[in-house]
Amino acid sequence: MYQPSHGGFAVRDPAALLGELSAGVSATLVTVSGGRLAATILPMLYDRGDGPLGTLRGHLARENPQWRDLDPGVDALAIFDGPEAYVSPRHYPSTRAGGRHVPTWNYVTVQAAGPLTVLEDAAWLREVVGRLTDRHEAGAPRPWSADSAPPDYLRGQLRAIVGVELRVGRLEAKRKLSQNRDPRDAAEVIASLAAGTPEERAVAEEMARAAAPARDR
Known about the structure:
Elements: H1 14-22, E1 27-33, E2 36-42, E3 45-47, E4 55-61, E5 76-87, H2 93-96, E6 104-114, E7 116-119, H3 122-137, H4 151-159, E8 161-167, E9 170-176, H5 183-194, H6 198-216
Helix pairs in contact: 5-6
């Protein structure tokens, strides 16, 4: 991941951010399979305590060719993207005062890389599917559980998927949230995005979080 020497965009605890993002957004899993790049969007569980940098677990459709012919010499990459938004120079007070600026893009992202293992054990798959389901059903008034499905039907569905386990060997994260801007410029961007779309409001919240430690210092 490109981290410029200026700007303060690097994240001190990327594992914490990975835990936060993976609980709510899917990963883009990128591999080299059959000599070609392949990518799939899928939810993944992050077990931070399993290994030095943690382990990611999920599953792919058995018919998805990505899990076949994986290149053992090339790590897989799981990308978790948080909120993102376009930032216009028109938001900057310094622009109105005669400053010259260009548009930019604010975002939050984590990249986790490491060797990928394919697993077909039914018990392993049942646990991962159950944990993923429970996580995403947790806020529902009447949560659905994998135990609600007829056992024969569930076994058939598990035969249609394969598990993937990524042992994280490299973990990088970035919060590009106008930390390199004049505080007055950043404050107006926050105010403008806070009145926008849900995605823009989420970026405004992230910007406010990023700005708070600087104000405290």
